[in-house]
């Protein structure tokens, strides 16, 4: 089937649902609790921070089932078209036995008051299903960073996850073929269009359909992961008359590595892009990307959505600007490409015409003499908005001369922005302490940051200069003799700012 249909179709557990009158911004959390009586999914913060509302969304991508933990409080029901949702009520096996994660939580005393427990269980089940998610030095910590608990101190929950990772198959493994078959039957290639008293919902099947929709309705709100837009509804109580979810558009889900650049489509999530970005933006690890929200947020939020919302403190844009990224925009059949930094005009203003949308972003492959570094400074290590984020790209010749420099910051101005005077102080000079000091002085001329709840202007200016020192320590002429971990560097930059 192709063409248009007028309902949203998905599964919750093994129950099939067809919704023809759903409010476009009805959240999955409210629908589960109020319409279906599935109250195991809890409302804690209602803004995607605490993880109490975590559910699993299973999709068929190609011929493979992909399991993702997401925050139900900021996902709209309409975004689940073509998916299967699993809640805590689905975790018991058909014979009534507990899921291995639930059993581990019992064995390791991982629950006290119990309010947060369903969300933890769902994140942990997803961790068992996702290849490599709970592996490595920080694996379990990363997996649980989006779930908050006030009782246990986390140690018994971590022990439970270690036990669960050693357990055998669960009942979902036996159901995998049936799940794949039912999701395959939901693929009909149709564009969804639903209008009612609460607003209009359009889910385009293709990028061409999206372009046509936005030409006809330029005020329609594109929704990629809803990690921002969801809060407009739950916290800002905004009314969105027409929303256009794009997460299922295959044309916008491309990740392509060419000889000269990496292309990331507008519907690609941070979690999906993480490996490719880490490969093309080499630094000791992907510390910045793993600190963008939580697993639940990265499973929903997109790289291009983080750009298109125009936030001055988005973590992605400064890194991509420093890397020389270019943004691809489309309006109808007309396409154009601009330098990413030129997209941001002023606070809340971007270079995007009515009906125009971000189609993707390209990041150049860095040359062998280019070093790229980025550091995020925030009050908490996990799940916090940046006070400042500095990103740096230096091309250094064999004799130690800086041939090219791109320096970008978030949190220092009304938009993510390059530090032009700092770049000028670096280019054409030897990368030594004299050049470092000139760059530290120049950065004070590049920005006049504000004071807000996250940091004072003095703190931001001081940390920005200290990050240049951190860059010098990391890739200057003496770097091999004084290695510093990224985590230590972030902490040190803040301590130095406090004197």
From TrEMBL:
2Fe-2S ferredoxin-type domain location, by residue? 6-91
Q: Which residues form a coiled coil?
A: none
One MF term in the entry's GO annotations: FAD binding
What InterPro entries would the database entry show?
Answer: 2Fe-2S-bd (IPR002888), 2Fe-2S-bd_dom_sf (IPR036884), 2Fe-2S_ferredoxin-like_sf (IPR036010), 2Fe-2S_ferredoxin-type (IPR001041), 2Fe2S_fd_BS (IPR006058), Ald_Oxase/xanthine_DH-like (IPR016208), Beta-grasp_dom_sf (IPR012675), CO_DH_flav_C (IPR005107)
The answer to whether the entry has keyword Metal-binding is yes
What keywords were assigned to this record?
A: FAD, Flavoprotein, Iron, Metal-binding, Oxidoreductase
Q: Which domain of life is it from?
A: Bacteria
Domain FAD-binding PCMH-type, by residue range, is: 194-368
Per UniProt, the enzyme's principal EC class comes to oxidoreductase
EC assignment: the record states 1.2.7.4
**NCBIfam families xref list:** xanthine_xdhA
Q: What is this protein called?
A: Carbon monoxide dehydrogenase small chain
User: Can you name the source organism?
Assistant: Komagataeibacter saccharivorans
């Amino acid at each position: 089937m192709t063409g248009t249909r007028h309902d949203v179709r998905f599964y919750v557990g093994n129950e099939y649902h067809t919704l023809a009158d759903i409010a476009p911004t009805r959240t999955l959390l409210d629908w589960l609790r109020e319409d279906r009586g599935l109250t195991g999914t809890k409302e804690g913060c209602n803004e995607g921070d605490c993880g109490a509302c975590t559910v699993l969304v299973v999709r068929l991508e190609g011929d493979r089932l992909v399991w993702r933990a997401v925050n139900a409080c900021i996902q709209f029901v309409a975004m689940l078209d073509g998916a299967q949702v699993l809640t805590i009520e689905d975790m018991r096996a058909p014979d009534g036995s507990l899921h291995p994660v639930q059993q581990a939580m019992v064995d390791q005393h991982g629950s006290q008051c119990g309010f947060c427990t369903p969300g933890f269980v769902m994140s942990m089940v997803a961790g068992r299903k996702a290849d490599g998610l709970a592996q490595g030095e920080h694996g379990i910590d990363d997996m649980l960073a989006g779930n908050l608990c006030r009782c246990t101190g986390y140690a018994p929950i971590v022990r439970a996850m270690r036990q669960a990772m050693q357990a055998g198959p669960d009942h979902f493994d036996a159901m995998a073929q049936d799940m794949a078959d039912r999701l395959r039957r939901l693929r009909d290639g149709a564009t969804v269009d639903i209008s009612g008293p609460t607003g209009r919902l359009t889910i385009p099947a293709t990028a061409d359909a999206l372009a046509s929709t936005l030409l006809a309705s330029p005020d329609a709100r594109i929704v990629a992961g809803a990690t921002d837009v969801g809060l407009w509804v739950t916290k800002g109580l905004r009314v969105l008359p027409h929303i256009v979810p794009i997460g299922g558009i295959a044309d916008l889900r491309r990740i392509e590595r060419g000889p000269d650049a990496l292309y990331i489509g507008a519907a690609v999530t941070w979690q999906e892009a993480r490996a490719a970005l880490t490969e093309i933006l080499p630094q000791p690890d992907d510390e910045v990307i793993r600190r963008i929200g939580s697993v639940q947020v990265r499973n929903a939020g997109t790289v291009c959505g983080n750009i298109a919302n125009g936030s001055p403190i988005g973590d992605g844009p400064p890194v991509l600007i420093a890397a020389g990224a270019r943004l691809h925009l489309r309006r109808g059949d007309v396409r154009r490409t601009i330098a990413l930094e030129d997209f941001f005009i002023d606070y809340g203003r971007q270079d995007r015409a009515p009906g125009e949308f971000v189609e993707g972003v390209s990041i150049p492959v860095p040359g062998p003499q280019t070093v790229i570094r980025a550091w995020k400074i925030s009050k908490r290590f996990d799940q916090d908005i940046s006070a400042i984020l500095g990103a740096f790209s230096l091309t250094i010749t064999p004799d130690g001369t800086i041939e090219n420099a791109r320096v970008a910051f978030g949190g220092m101005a009304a938009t993510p922005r390059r530090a032009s005077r700092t770049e000028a102080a670096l280019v054409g000079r030897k990368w030594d302490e004299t050049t470092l000091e000139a760059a530290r002085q120049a950065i004070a001329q590049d920005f006049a940051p504000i004071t807000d709840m996250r940091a004072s202007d003095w703190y931001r200016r001081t940390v920005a200069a200290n990050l240049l020192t951190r860059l010098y320590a990391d890739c200057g002429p003496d770097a091999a003799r004084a290695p510093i971990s990224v985590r230590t560097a972030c902490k040190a930059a803040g301590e130095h700012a406090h004197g």
